[in-house]
Description:
Bound molecules: methionine, zinc ion
Low-confidence stretches: none
Radius of gyration: 27 Å
Mean pLDDT: 95
Oligomer: single chain
Distance between the termini: 86 Å
CATH architecture of the largest domain: Alpha-Beta Barrel
Amino acid sequence: xxxxxxxxxxxxxxxxxxxxxxxxxxxxxxxxxxxxxxxxxxxxxxxxxxxxxxxxxxxxxxxxxxxxxxxxxxxxxxxxxxxxxxxxxxxxxxxxxxxxxxxxxxxxxxxxxxxxxxxxxxxxxxxxxxxxxxxxxxxxxxxxxxxxxxxxxxxxxxxxxxxxxxxxxxxxxxxxxxxxxxxxxxxxxxxxxxxxxxxxxxxxxxxxxxxxxxxxxxxxxxxxxxxxxxxxxxxxxxxxxxxxxxxxxxxxxxxxxxxxxxxxxxxxxxxxxxxxxxxxxxxxxxxxxxxxxxxxxxxxxxxxxxxxxxxxxxxxxxxxxxxxxxxxxxxxxxxxxxxxxxxxxxxxxxxxxxxxxxxxxxxxxxxxxxxxxxxxxxxxxxxxxxxxxxxxxxxxxxxxxxxxxxxxxxxxxxxxxxxxxxxxxxxxxxxxxxxxxxxxxxxxxxxxxxxxxxxxxxxxxxxxxxxxxxxxxxxxxxxxxxxxxxxxxxxxxxxxxxxxxxxxxxxxxxxxxxxxxxxxxxxxxxxxxxxxxxxxxxxxxxxxxxxxxxxxxxxxxxxxxxxxxxxxxxxxxxxxxxxxxxxxxxxxxxxxxxxxxxxxxxxxxxxxxxxxxxxxxxxxxxxxxxxxxxxxxxxxxxxxxxxxxxxxxxxxxxxxxxxxxxxxxxxxxxxxxxxxxxxxxxxxxxxxxxxxxxxxxxxxxxxxxxxxxxxxxxxxxxxxxxxxxxxxxxxxxxxxxxxxxxxxxxxxxxxxxxxxxxxxxxxxxxxxxx
Length: 770
Ligand code: MET
Ligand SMILES: [Zn+2]
């Protein structure tokens, strides 16, 4: 039965040991030449194809590799290079990296910032946002994907080029500054360039081309998108010799399926993990002669697949197709969002835990087993049996369940989700208790993680520094930090978060139900990778996590309040790999209970202001509008569960790092926080626009300066921003603070910037009184 193909939509690029990170960063630092970067990357690609072939995949994707980002690659390939980068030799790597991370080079007189970066759908991967001008032209500018196809073929692999389709490329782009046309209105001009590229792929021996159109998983306006897609594939069909696999992922095709199924393509990929509900409609609507690519292995999580369950879905599809057309076994989406391999975890994680997990390498094997089972089950019987045992072991393990936690969550009544009195009454009580001036100043929490801080932590982890020595070091950093804030006149102080590498990792390490991998890196943007914690079981808090540090810091402050700093349940969930055996909302509820206990303990220790950060609440929003409400309901609930255990006098802060919160504004209001601090400086208009439309009745501190750059903001520019904010926010509700935490900054610039910020607030108080 040769009609089963096994493949994946894409593989992580970084390498088993983040080799690509080292190559690219070495190149930026001038330590790796362009030729070495190219050679090293070629070697990585070859290794990744070899790995896929070693498990018996029948075809490997090519073009999924990228120096920085695949959206940027697609834009670069068709010549979407904004004018400001054209002063750089735009033929190659220099312009490409100028677009990805900006370029300051005095000798060639160039100083350009990077393109804007945005989250890739609901993942923690960020793509570079292409800019389309009114007079945009397109031209084939890079043949990277053709070259990689040739490379794979020369090594003897059956290879399938992957390209980001033109409709998604334009839909993910933005209108360039000074232009007004919608990017999608440029489609007709763009298509011929794609056709030229496809012609080159055909000439290089491609048979199938994978066209990623992930926007098909979004709510689309049929009147615009059906004709757009029809136009594209009418033109693509003219390229002779190619077959197209149209893919989308991260959600169901839903109502887009009926017209997408009719497009003149040769195969359609279905994400059968997140879009499992598409199956029946797909079998009915996708013409019988088209390939169905069954995305059965989850590319978004790290749990071992339940192969029997997935095999049943596969079998259903195969039976329905009656051998009229091939069926492919595939990953649900690219494995880009999975760590590379479980191998480095052997010896780090225990055997039982290892048996529950599956990273990219193991997912490849799962695809191969499913495909083999569909052809001849007995050939992989033993493997299926082992899989069933591991899956069952996770379902039944006592390590997973803590009945006390589950019972507690199930027993809560509505008082656990409500403060005792409404905000306006709390505000009076808090004013009396805290005695803050008008326009209180504060920061978001972290202060510079200097080389010294990182070194001390590394030494402590290695055992070179004793626990006592490390604590003394942290105490002294914290004391200096508090004293300095006090001295320059900040009003609500923070301890600086010197003990935390990462705001989620810190809590994960203290809570039960989490594990940490050794090399489970996932690309976040460019060369930056994150190592998300794994939430495997019921979450509980064995001991207080931040109370000692908060108490110590409060003692260091003469008479100003020090904020207790916590990470919120939605953010902890969003930045972790989450168990899939219960709804996310339930796991979030368990985390919320742990945070709630911490909040209550902080209050009992004399902490009067407590901040629960939720920077990820926006990115957790589902892709489909129909799913918004349910998500927003439970994410608001868990925040309230975490924060409402306190008395009226205790001031609850929260923090977000985005300003486009129009869509979730109502939810933000219902968090019922006393104060929110929010990123604002990079896009003043967005926040002000939202405030104008919706109004905001509680206290709020829109960021006065961008913390992503070492630039020191002047008093004048922050004063202007602050004056603008006063038009939208009543003076008695307005705070002055930066956009976000300061951990990536140096002390010199932090000192100057915050001193300027304080003087903005002081001047505003004076002119308000006058
Ligand atoms: C990404 S939001 C960061 C909040 C955290 N409290 C900090 O200041 O670093
Ligand atoms: Zn932030």
